[in-house]
Amino acid sequence: MSETNSAAETAAPHRYTAAMAADIEARWQDFWDAEGTYEAPNPTGDLAGDPELAAKPKKFIMDMFPYPSGAGLHVGHPLGYIATDVYARHQRMTGHNVLHTLGFDAFGLPAEQYAVQTGTHPRVSTEANMENMKVQLRRLGLGHDNRRSFATIDAEYYKWTQWIFLQIFNSWYDTEADRARPIAELVEQFESGTRATPDGREWNELSATERADLLSQYRLAYASDAPVNWSPGLGTVLANEEVTADGRSERGNFPVFKAKLRQWNMRITAYADRLLNDLDGLDWPEAIKLQQRNWIGRSEGARVKFPVDTAGGITVFTTRQDTLFGATYMVLAPEHDMVERIIPAAWPEGTHPVWTGGHASPAEAVTAYRKQAAAKSDVERQAEAKDKTGVFTGAYATNPVSGEKVPVFIADYVLMGYGTGAIMAVPAHDARDFAFARAFELPMRCVVQPSDDRGTDPATWDDAFGSYDAKLVNSANDEISLDGLGVVEAKAKITEWLREHGAGEGTVNFRLRDWLFSRQRYWGEPFPIVYDEDGIAHPLPESMLPLELPEVEDYSPRTFDPEDASAQPETPLSRNADWVNVTLDLGDGPRKYRRETNTMPNWAGSCWYELRYLDPNNDRQLVDPSIEQYWMGPREGQPTGGVDLYVGGAEHAVLHLLYARFWSKVLHDLGHISSAEPFHKLYNQGMIQAFVYRDSRGIAVPAAEVEERDGAFYYAGEKVSRVLGKMGKSLKNAVTPDEICAEYGADTLRLYEMAMGPLDVSRPWDTRAVVGQYRLLQRLWRNVVDEETGEVTVVDTEPGEDTLRALHKAIDGVGQDMAGMRFNTAIAKVTELNNHLTKAGGPLSRSVAERLVLLIAPLAPHIAEELWRRLGHTDSVVHQDFPVADPAYVVDETVTCVVQIKGKVRARLEISPSITDEELEALALADDAVVAALGGAGIRKVIVRAPKLVNIVPA
User: Where would I find the beta strands (DSSP E) of 134-205?
Assistant: First the structure.
């Protein structure tokens, strides 16, 4: 503390200082906890005997789950938490029953990686991190209902995560009813014969394994052998959404390869249309909706079958079925199952040398190319590379409309993740196909009339010609002609022809793939699944939940050389034989089973946590239906229900948000919840950034130790560079909330973070600027409390009209800003009012002081609570009514009206804002300056826009 500050405090012992703030804040935080100030009553029991409370509108406000990092919080982390707290406090003061709480998303890779490095059990480190984070968050004065808090690692919580998994496993999607139904109803259809088995046999003629395999084709949660994203460096597989744009793991930045492994999946694709359509009813940022629409990727087209003599046929999905006559070759993704079925033992006679890749046989060529393709990410494979690569399979397919034999290649630019994993190549009209055809000297045929002067011989073209506006050419056989038709007409005509000839049909395709739900890790929810001797999966009964994680000696999955794409995963759980191999009675007597040794991904626990907040201690059911209906059920303006306000980062657009929507829809379909969407309103807060300083080696240096001299920056005497970026421990620019609270108090930190700018915009942190909000609180305190005696200085007299106008304008503006989450402008209006009161001098009227305290209460709750009590109140400021503005004082007494003649301003009139057009016209024409400017000229027209403008047009 400086000598100047010390002297000031001695002279004014009751001045608002950091020490006083710390005392006030700790006392009121203890009081709120002891009194249960923020506990939100539920509709059963709590509200039943309280009609007044029952009549209140509800508001469910949520933050995205925090992960308890060992590094603790820096000042960027609480931005959203403070914002939701301010909003929640305002909603309480405007008559709402508010539910606001916070839990912890505690499973996942960081704790496990720490355990691998140190030998510390993930639970030990995670719980220690949570306790530290709770202390930091409590210090901010967040008004959470702590009775409702939990962590995803709590067994009583993940019991219900496992239970939901079983609901999904025991469900199938009925496309006719357009909803999920219990798998038992599907079994009944097979048993009764109302639904035929694929080969026509009776249900009871199928073996247990055949039945299980058949049901697996329908289940919403199923295990399958499929191409997955395999990260040897992490020892686990990853969902598509967890792979970065450059084909590396989001966690750890390890290479990711395509590998075929048996994994659990969620059939999220069954809900693609509903996930797409229901976006329209959500109050979400358009940018997030667009990301989800693009990720789901709905496209209309046709499935077309190209017969293959040796293997039935290859089906492609295309959105340009009108160009079918121009298909001169086919390409399969390297991973496609058909590849093994179509390749011949030897190259066909006359095979072009370029097609073979220099290999002696098709099998050798395919094996070598597959290995090459596996080392590339999907993003790399789709990149517009200059040189196209691929290899001929040795097989030919038949174009169904031309009868032409077309060669079948594999190439890495075709992915299994879109359509059928096979394409018909129309090189004249697709840029990638054109490049491939040129590289492999394949034929090209023009079937869409170019609109330029290039002609119709693709051999003379420099690139492909693509258009949806041109006419079709060279597209006819003995039965059908598309020549002269536009694209839309041609699509419809060829689709109908394909259907009639059994060669294809119109269909809709989605970019969205089923959600890969397995991780080869320890620190995650165990699957409530066991396998019998035949490998058939059996769900555990609810009575055996939760299935808890066993103790293991080694938390490490088996990791490999990050570049070893051929490695196979080995999970930590698989090394605990006593846990894996069990004898259970699942209803047909004791039998030996083998447990699933993968765990669920970290996303599982956050797919439904909003529901647990509602009814956190329910050990009988997922959530009480009446409680869920009250807080999240559909209502006017929210047709699919959901949380009223959900605040978090935009980075979860196609991860957590998409997954949570899917789980909600399944639970809704099965009758467990009334809300079909988890989050009605989504708000993405911006990021608090900080300057990063780097030395000549590019190494970050401690930002707090950097000096600025003459516009340059120096660390330890060496000049360093400065760029604005993220805040973080590794960048050595992190500022903790604890530091700011110790220096200024939590209320100052809250005000500063809310005042930095619009909440949804990123902004740079500047510790030097924090003092501005500290001084606001000091002036506020000084306006109510004598700094020398500590006595309240307000008087019981009515304020003057100027003060009333300033007060009610502030009340009106702050109230609107609070409701619209414009907290920076709300603070500006409070500051303006406080400055007005300071300049006015003299003691404040009690009625003004009280309303000033209520205005700032959502933003700075500790000082507001303290001043409220000092003003003589015995109940908490938290549940007081927010002030209401008197309209008579909000409207300005006069406004300035501009009078123009020929577009030039000739007069300004101070008039009543309620003046009529006729009255304003008369005043303007009578004004001396206007009369002089007209100089006796006649008037052709007078345009009046009361109360701000009069425009006079002379004759």
Answer: 171-174, 179-182
Asked, for residue 261, whether it belongs to a domain, the answer is yes
Q: For residues 458 and 532, state if they share a domain.
A: no
CB 610 within 8 A of CB 166: no
* Domains identified in the chain, total number: 4
Supply the CATH number for residue 946's domain: 3.10.20.590
How far apart CA 530 and CA 265 sit, in angstroms, is 16
Q: Measuring CA to CA, how many Å separate 401 from each of 286, 404, 443, 474, 875?
A: 43, 8, 17, 12, 82
Which of 414-418, 525-529, 743-747 has the least mean pLDDT? Answer: 414-418
Asked whether residue 484 falls in the same domain as residue 546, the answer is no
Average pLDDT, the chain: 93
Residues 480 and 525 both lie in one domain? no
The edge-to-edge listing of strands for the beta sheet with 904-911 is 904-911, 895-901, 949-954, 939-945
| Phi (first) and psi of residue 508, to 5 degrees | -115, 140
CB 542 within 8 Å of CB 535: no
Maximum pairwise Cα distance, the chain: 111
Is residue 31 in a domain?
no
Higher pLDDT, 252 or 96: 96
67 to each of 77, 144, 348, 739, how far by Cα in Å? 11, 17, 59, 21
Query: Does a cis peptide bond (omega within 30 degrees of 0) precede residue 198?
Result: no
Among the listed residues 711, 636, 632, the one whose alpha carbon sits nearest the alpha carbon of residue 676? 632
Shared domain check, 541 and 505: no
- Count of positions (residues) in the chain: 955
Q: Return the DSSP state at 696.
A: T
Cα 825–chain centre separation: 27
Q: At what angle do helices 737-744 and 122-139 cross, to 10 degrees?
A: 30
Q: Is residue 792 part of a domain?
A: no
pLDDT digits (tens, 9 = 90+) for 649-702: 998 888 899 999 999 999 999 999 999 999 999 999 999 999 999 999 999 999
Q: Give the three-class secondary structure for 94.
A: coil
Residues 197 and 327 in one domain: no
**Residue of 940, 230, 254, 164 lying closest to 545 (CA atoms):** 164
Q: How many CA atoms lie within 13 A of 135 on its CB side?
A: 8
- CA 153, 159, 164, 167 dihedral sign is positive
| Identity of the amino acid at 592 | K
pLDDT at position 100 is 98
Shared domain for 336 and 470, answered yes or no, is yes
Phi then psi dihedrals of residue 263, to 5 deg: -140, 160
Residue 158 — pLDDT band, cuts 50, 70, 90?
very high
Tell me which residue range forms the domain holding 258: 179-270+517-595
> Where is the domain boundary, 595, 621, 638?
595
- The verdict on 498 and 559 lying in the same domain is no
Mark whether 449 and 370 lie in a shared domain.
yes
Residue 43 per-residue DSSP state: T
Nearest to 165 by CA among 220, 225, 210: 220
Alpha carbon distances (Å) from 524 to 151, 237, 918? 12, 14, 75
pLDDT by residue (tens digit) across 432-469?
999 999 999 999 999 999 988 899 999 999 999 998 89
Q: How far is 522 from 107, CA to CA, in rounded Å?
A: 10
Average pLDDT over residues 235-262: 83
- pLDDT tens across 812-828, in order? 999 999 999 999 999 99
Q: What is the pLDDT of residues 409-434, one digit of tens each?
A: 999 999 887 789 999 999 999 999 99
pLDDT band at 2 (very low <50, low <70, confident <90, very high): very low
What is the per-residue pLDDT across 348-394, written as a single tens digit (0 to 9) for each? Answer: 999 999 999 999 999 999 999 998 888 776 667 766 556 789 999 99
- Using CA atoms, how far residue 577 sits from 120, 526, 550, 569, in Å, is 22, 15, 11, 17
